[in-house]
Amino acid sequence: MNVGVFERRACHEEIVLCHDAKTGLKAIIVIYSTALGPALGGTRFYPYESEDDAIDDVLKLSKGMAYKNALAGLDLGGGKAVIIGNPVTDKTEPLLRAYGRFIESLGGRYITACDVGTSVPDMGHIAGECSHVTDRSSREGGAGNSSVLTAYGVYQIMLACAEYTWGEPSLQGRRVEISGIGKVGTLLVEQLVDHGVMVVVTDLDKETVSRVRQAHPEVDVVDCTDTLIRSDIDVYVPCALGGVLNDDTVRVLRARIVCGAANNQLSCEGIDKDLQDRGILYAPDHLVNAGGVIQVADDLHGFSFERAKLRVTNIYRITREVCEHATKYWITAGKAADKIAEQKIIEPTRGRNSKGKCNIID
């Protein structure tokens, strides 16, 4: 039996279908929640095989953004948008401007930013028709590339996980392996090396690997992710594709901590419980990569790098709190993070106690 849109939307507040025949625009904007404020979330430009696939993806992504924004302590709800098409061949300035007009028609309920298939220059085109857009270039008064604070946030969460696992907030002398050294991964390598961490990397792009090795000769390289996962490591850092944690990899993974910036790392539900049963702490990805959304959110108020970085530092405390709730309630860190986010969304005025710590719903 086919499941209708209303059944699939669950708790989502609003779905907007955007079509502009002149430019070929086909887009879907989904607002999951505005309980904490306007719904912030990126726009993904992707060649989905079907409209159903696009709807399913944007529904899931919008919920994830609501949880991420709530966990990060932002006064923002969560949403997401997808443009159906190939970003290489179908993306044009008129199409993006048409899309911007649809966002503007929502009156500020949804604020967009970059995602897969869209870039900082694209946000500039959208901003030509819309005042509810962030992630613009520094030349246009925006925050620019959010990779710096994303990587900084990943490192803060690593330290919190290290303290929870080994009793001290340090990775010095530990062996950390990074799968995927794009913008975030490369910046993370720099931070780890600077703090005396033994770093091992792998990436399909050999030129990127070569550049990292030239900058940091002390970094080791392995030929593939499978080799990396089976190695004697302390922390595994997936920063490339999603779905890398599955039944096969969990059985052979030898790390004590998984903490990476890749989205949707778990191949299916229950994998985080399998990791927990093996004594491996999995830091949920929507918490780990929250540094980027904190930077994007700060852009809404006239970007200050120092202010945004200070707020990203707070992710350390949030991660410790998530770990404590997981232990207290005998649940995974991912479920603990979700419970905290859900309470903030459901009861936005009661999600924090007088000391600023999040309460959890039984």
From TrEMBL:
Keyword presence, Nucleotide-binding: yes
**Molecular function per GO:** nucleotide binding; oxidoreductase activity, acting on the CH-NH2 group of donors, NAD or NADP as acceptor
Q: Which domain of life is it from?
A: Bacteria
Active site (catalytic residues): 80
Q: Which Pfam families is this protein grouped with?
A: ELFV_dehydrog, ELFV_dehydrog_N
* UniProt keywords, alphabetically: NAD, Nucleotide-binding, Oxidoreductase
Positions bound to NAD(+): 180-185
- Domain Glutamate/phenylalanine/leucine/valine/L-tryptophan dehydrogenase C-terminal residue range list: 144-353
Please list the GO biological process terms of this entry.
amino acid metabolic process
Question: PROSITE patterns under this entry?
Answer: GLFV_DEHYDROGENASE
SMART domains in alphabetical order: ELFV_dehydrog (SM00839)
Protein's UniProt keywords contain Oxidoreductase:
yes
Q: Which family does it belong to?
A: Belongs to the Glu/Leu/Phe/Val dehydrogenases family.
List the PANTHER family: LEUCINE DEHYDROGENASE, VALINE DEHYDROGENASE
Protein name, UniProt field: Valine dehydrogenase
Q: Which organism is it from?
A: Amycolatopsis pithecellobii
